[in-house]
Amino acid sequence: MSARLEAEQLYKVFGRRPDQAVERLRRGADREELRADGTTAAVIDASFTVDPGQIFVVMGLSGSGKSTLLRMLNGLLEPTAGHVRFDGQDLTALSARELREVRAHKISMVFQHFALFPHRSVLDNAAYGLAVQGVPRAERERRAGEALALCGLAGWEKSWPDELSGGMQQRVGLARALATDADLLLMDESFSALDPLIRRDMQDQLLQLQRTLKKTIVFITHDLNEAMRLGDRIAVMRDGRIVQTGTAEDILVRPADDYVASFTKDVDRSRVLTASAVMDTDLRGDEADCGCESGCETATPDTPFTELCAISARLSHPVIVLDDDRRLVGVVPTRRLVGFLGDGEVPAHA
Ligand SMILES: Nc1ncnc2c1ncn2[C@@H]1O[C@H](COP(=O)(O)OP(=O)(O)O)[C@@H](O)[C@H]1O
Ligand SMILES: [Mg+2]
C-alpha cells in the first residue's frame, strides 16, 4: 500500500540568516532581492498533496528549484520552514536516525545518471537497496529478480552493467527503486539523459507499472511533453515558486500566467487534449438533432483529441459529445479542432 505525501509551505534558503530570508519572502520579496545579499531562495512557499497511485510531476527550467524541493521530500535536505508529511508522519520532526529508517524502507529515489556498481551483477545492483535494509540474500535476490522482470530485464540478472545499453541501465535503476517496496518514488530527471525513443519507452513502462503498483510518485522534469504524458497533476516552478498546479489540460487550456502560456506553446496539443477541453458548451439544446437517419457517431468528454478528429472527418456536422447518461454536454465543430491545434485561440462559436 502506498500513502499520501503532503508538502506544506516549504521553503529552502541557502546562505546566511535563512530564517530572516523566509520572513522577507513571506512578506513578498522575490529571489532577486535576496540574491543581492548573497542568499539563494531555492524553494519558496511550496505546497501540494500527492495521493497514493498518483504521478505528481514538478516541471521547470534548470535552476527553478526542482531538485531542492525533491531533496526536502525525503529529508536529504532540511527545510528552512514548512512541513513534509508522508503516510501520516511529519518527516520534518524526525531525528536523523528515524529519517534514515524512513528513507531506507519507505522512499526510493531514481536519479538522472544512475550510478550502477560496475563490478556487481545486474541482479546485485538491483538488490542493493535491499542489502542496505539487511534483507537476507535469498530473499533479496528473489525480490530483485521480480523487479528486474517488471522492468523488462528478465534474463539479464547475471550480466554486468557495461553489457547493458544506457536505457537498460536506467531500467536497473528503476528496478532497484521498485525492489525495496518503497511506497514513495522520487524521480529526478530520471529519463532526461536517454535518447528520445528509449525515453518514450521508459515513460510507457513507468505508466504501465504504475497501473498495477499504484505508488506515490513525484517525477521531476524540465520537459513539458514528458510532464504532460506522465503527470496526473503537474506543478510548474519558476524562480523557486510553484506558479501553477493542475492537470495537463488545465495547464494547456487555462495557463495561470503568460509564463506558463509561453511554456506550453510548443506542446503537441493533440496528445493532451480531450473532448472536454475542446467542446463548445454554450448550447441551445437541439444540437443532438443532427438529422442523421440512423444514430451517428458521438464522443464522450474523455475522447482523445486524435479520435475526435477521426470522428469529425467521418461526419458532415459537428461531433456531438454525450456524458455517461447520454445527455448532450457539448459539440465540436471541425473548425474548433483546427483552432486548438494552433495557438488555442478559438472564437466562442467557431
Ligand atoms: N547546496 C546549495 N547551496 C547553494 N545554492 C544551492 C544549493 N543547491 C541548489 N542551490 C541553488 O538553488 C537554486 C535551485 O537549484 P535546484 O534545486 O538544483 O534547481 P533545478 O533542480 O530546478 O535545476 C539554484 O539557484 C541553485 O544554484
Ligand atoms: Mg535538478
Report on this structure.
The chain is α/β, with parallel strands linked by helices and 350 residues long. The protein folds into two domains: 5-106 and 182-267, Rossmann fold; 275-341, CBS domain Like, CATH 3.90.1280. Helix content is 37%, strand content 21%. The protein is built from 15 helices and 13 strands. It has helices at 18-26, 31-35, 66-73, 96-105, 122-126, 128-133, 137-150, 166-179, 196-213, 224-230, 248-253, 258-263, 275-278, 305-314, 334-341; strands at residues 5-14, 40-50, 55-60, 81-86, 89-90, 107-110, 184-188, 216-221, 233-238, 241-246, 298-299, 319-322, 328-332. A six-stranded mixed β-sheet has the order 6-7-8-3-9-10, sandwiched between helices. A four-stranded antiparallel β-sheet has the order 2-1-4-5, sandwiched between helices. Strands 11-12-13 form a three-stranded mixed β-sheet. Strand 11 (298-299), helix 14 (305-314) and strand 12 form a beta-alpha-beta unit. The longest helix has 18 residues, at 196-213. The protein starts with a strand and ends in a 9-residue tail after the last helix. The structure holds adenosine-5'-diphosphate and magnesium ion (MG).
H-E order = EHHEEHEEHEHHHHEHEHEEHHHEHEEH
CATH architecture of the largest domain: 3-Layer(aba) Sandwich
User: Taking Cα atoms only, what radius of gyration do you get, to the nearest Å?
Assistant: 23 Å
Question: Any idea of the CATH class of the largest domain?
Answer: Alpha Beta
Tell me the strand percentage band. Answer: 15-25%
Spatial shape: globular
What is the CATH fold-level name of the largest domain?
Rossmann fold
- Give the overall average pLDDT: 90
Q: What is the percent of helical residues? A: 25-40%
Q: Residue ranges: pLDDT <50 for 5 or more in a row?
A: none
In total, the number of domains comes to 2
GO molecular function, one term: ATP binding
Family: Belongs to the ABC transporter superfamily.
Keywords: ATP-binding, Nucleotide-binding, Transport
InterPro entries: AAA+_ATPase (IPR003593), ABC_osmolyte_uptake_ATP-bind (IPR051921), ABC_transporter-like_ATP-bd (IPR003439), ABC_transporter-like_CS (IPR017871), Gly-betaine_transp_ATP-bd (IPR005892), P-loop_NTPase (IPR027417)
